[in-house]
Design goal:
Elements (H helix, E strand, L loop, with lengths): L1 H8 L2 H12 L2 H4 L4 E2 H8 L3 H13 L3 E4 L2 E4 L1 H4 L10 H6 L3 H7 L1 H7 L3 H6 L3 H6 L2 H18 L3 H4 L7 E5 L5 H9 L4 E6 L1 H4 L8 E4 L12 E5 L7 H14 L5 E7 L9 H11 L6 H11 L2 E7 L4 E7 L1
Parallel strand pairs: 4-5, 4-7, 5-6, 7-8
Antiparallel strand pairs: 1-3, 2-3, 8-10, 9-10
Length: 317
């Protein structure tokens, strides 16, 4: 039991070593076999410490090693910049400000408030908006998750019966990209802050900038809120939903995609603690999301399972 605890205490070392390798572009450097000397020279690093990092990554099965040469393997290839299924920015996401917030989780447990805001002096998303490089890295990470999480969405939902669909708070546009690829005739609208969508280059979609806390334009029959409401407490979520209601036509539809804690067998307590520490929010049950939407003026029509974690709640105005 003691040995197990001692190992447990330092498990984060491996993840932080991997995250450091992503930050240094080390995996990108090792598409071909190289020695520690070659890596240190190419990346302008301290050779003695590069040896330690490379060997640690090899021990953790993130690098192949032949004599004194190292190379990426199937695992670490997924952490390179240009891999089509890259999770590089997802890896980086959890080792930066998220880690600091978790180190101050006791503040959130005591107060119910955001440990992130206590540490950095700003709410999480306001902080990102003031740091363009971090904002870009965050949305790259969310895009990497979304490409996989929502890959079956156009097959599960029949979007062809709609002329237009708007993804509100859609980040770098993974959902509208998937919908457009399946049904090119649909007008797909991506709505997010200008500093977010200004970097998106998905062809044949319409980009509209604004804040979902202000006015959402009346430009679509359908609004999608995918993993948006869980970022906000009930008061803020109510504002977003009211603006969605006003943006939709008389018979418009709202699709809310979330991890509903009552619809899955996986315990979401750690994820809820993360939302508390970062955003002063939490993961909700389907009934909690339904209540929020109904209070805003929506009526539940149906629900569908998207994947192992996520449920689609379908509402009519």
């Amino acid at each position: 039991m003691k040995d197990r605890l001692k190992t447990f205490f330092t498990q984060h070392w491996t993840y932080l070593a991997v995250s450091t390798a992503c930050k240094l572009n080390l995996f990108d450097c090792l598409h071909e076999q190289k020695t520690a000397t070659q890596v240190a020279t190419e990346l302008s690093l301290t050779e003695e410490k590069v040896v330690l990092l490379l060997n640690a990554l090899h021990s953790a099965e993130f690098l192949d090693k032949k004599e004194d040469h190292f190379k990426v393997n199937a695992m670490s290839e997924l952490l390179t910049e240009n891999h089509p299924e890259s999770l590089k920015y997802a890896c980086l996401n959890w080792s930066a400000e998220h880690l600091t917030a978790w180190q101050n989780l006791d503040f959130s447990i005591k107060t119910g408030k955001s440990a992130f805001e206590e540490s950095y002096g700003l709410p999480f998303f306001d902080y990102l908006n003031e740091h363009p490089e971090k904002l870009n890295a965050y949305h790259k990470a969310m895009y990497q998750y979304a490409k996989e999480d929502y890959q079956n969405l156009p097959d599960i939902l029949d979007f062809s019966k709609y002329k237009s669909v708007m993804d509100v708070g859609g980040g770098y546009g993974a959902i509208v990209e998937l919908i457009k690829a399946k049904d090119p005739a649909i007008e797909c609208v991506l709505f997010d802050l200008d500093k977010v969508i200004s970097t998106v280059s998905i062809p044949n979609i319409k980009k509209v900038s604004g804040s979902f806390f202000d006015k959402i334009p009346n430009q679509s029959e359908v609004i999608i809120l995918s993993r948006v409401l869980h970022d906000w407490n009930n008061a803020n979520a109510a504002v977003i939903l009211q603006n969605c209601l006003e943006a939709l036509p008389k018979d418009g539809a709202l699709f809310v995609i979330e991890n509903c804690s009552d619809k899955i067998s996986i315990d979401l307590s750690l994820l809820s603690l993360n939302m508390t520490a970062m955003c002063e929010s939490h993961e909700r049950t389907s009934s909690a999301y339904i209540s929020l939407c109904e209070n805003a003026g929506f009526q539940l029509e149906s629900e569908l399972k998207l994947n192992e974690l996520q449920t689609i709640l379908i509402f009519k105005k």
